[in-house]
Amino acid sequence: MATVRREVIIDRNADDVWRRVGDPAAIHEWFPGMVASDVDGTRRTITTATGLPMPEEIVTIDPVARRFQYRLDVPIVRDHLGTIDVFDLGDGRSLVAYATDCEPPAMALIIGGATGAALVELRRQLESEPRPHDARSA
Amino acid sequence: MGRKILFVTTDQQRYDTLGCNGGALARTPVVDGLAADGIRYERAVPQSVVCMPSRSTILTGQYPSTHGVWMNGVPLPVDAPSVAAELQRSGYRTALIGKAHFEPFMDPFGRFTENMLARSGEPTATRAWADGSVGPHRGFDHLEFATHGAAGMLHYAQWLAREHPEAIGMYYSAIDASFNVNAAGGGATGAPQVHDNPVLRDWYHTEWVADRTIDWLDSLAADDDWFCWMSFPDPHHPWDPPASELGRVDWRDVPLPAGYPVYRSERERILDDKPRHWRMWYDGTLVSNYEAPRDWVPATLTDDQVREVNARNAIECELIDEALGRVVAAIERRGWTDDVDIVFTTDHGELQGDFGLLFKGPYHVDGLMRLPLVWRPAPSANVAPAVVTAPVGLVDLAPTFGAIAGLEPCAWMQGKPLPLDDADAARRGFERALTEWDSELFGVAVYLRTITRDGWVCTAYRPGHVHDGTEGELYDLGEDPLQQRNLWDEPSHAGRRADLLADLWDHQPRRHEPRLALEAPV
Would the pTM count as exceeding 0.90? Predict the structure, then answer.
């Protein structure tokens, strides 16, 4: 199985980042190329910008470890595990790692490339918002 | 009214496939005629031997290190410099019809502008796009895309699905069920990526590219200045030309190429003289790059398979030549001929049997690095026909187009307008051509830097998966035109090697910062 990992440092604390990443219904808001995300229990179906529905099984939502995991459940992907980890860097910043383990390997590159763009967009969105404490002081 | 530019590219075409370059298999009278009336370059070198980096070099006039597309699957930023944009801003009508490939094809998320433009049916980006850019996309005010078959969302695939849906399944599937380059064989010999395609010739992508080009040209006003990049997907694999055309070249009559040593022991001896990834790929113990079928082992290649691949490649080259002839005739009908520059080239070559190998990869030898390049200047410019032997690069194309249009040189371009003859080349310092290879595929990294100058090719290897950074290749193109004797470790050539390496490292282009991300396999 091929593995691709992308990571980004975000100038926001881990709780703020996790609030966005840990919401399975919100992924299409920060993942370029996703236009919808429908959640029903542990099943999630995302729809891509090309109109492709991609059903998934949510494996882990762990707010303590700040880990989100899911599996794609489509015939062209024989095996898949997507893992998003949010690490507290202790200085008000977070490290977000998005790993894609996938078979066939070429699909790992396709999904992994998209996850890299997603992290860039996640950082852009979060860092363009006022910090929660800034909002309070305003 | 200025000079108009028809820029013709093919994909993965060898130097020796043209009659004017000594090719004997394919009949290419149209390009041969352009060469006779214009300038034929005998040592045109790509700056990368795979599509996306090389095409990005053509558009930007920059080396891969600088524009940042360091391997296939890395998209060229939408705001990258573009000679088409310079021409468009100066009043030229601009079009790209055929294969672009500045952005990945594999795009289920619809993240890349070119795929989504094709899907939307819009001629270009004229409003803010998802990435925030505003068109025209890369400076082209008309875009129609095609690639090597009927799959995907590009314009040709959509046209075929709409007009001739029965033909979709006729093409070879270039990608297999695992999203790898397909290793399945076909034809009479079972050669990989060879397929009997019953598609009608009129429906084939070569014809479609010419048809769409002619339609676009016919839409222009007589006094428009225009730049049209007509980009044929062939003769890149799959080798599946319309079956109706297979009688043009009988594979049984095709001689084995000079670069294909007939005896296995000889092939393997030559490979063993090169850095070890060559032999490892041949034996099927290392796949370093995505561009060749992962499940195909070159050591299984047979003489007849080499013949059949070369036959079909030649047929595809003939079809391109005839399609170009139709476009040239359309230009003549518009009365533009005297003011039209025609440039014909390709993005990189094809091994096509050399050393017992097919396809492409980190192998900087003539099969991949010696390209056809012909420039027929506008007859009104009164440029004398010539043959240029000095090394030139695809990096020189963008400045050439700018010079044809009378634009001021762009500081961001790293090449120079192509020389008109060898004296001009000497006067303007065409001494060297540089080529780069970087690839990282599932932990296998390969990095090459190559210089072509003074009749030599020298490649240095940086540390990677199977290289420790001491390996290299050194070939005397005059004495060893097939690059079968690696002189890298020959003590008698140590001085030559040192000089070439010093020149190579002295002329490395600046690097794009930050490094762009790999977004897809291709």
Answer: yes
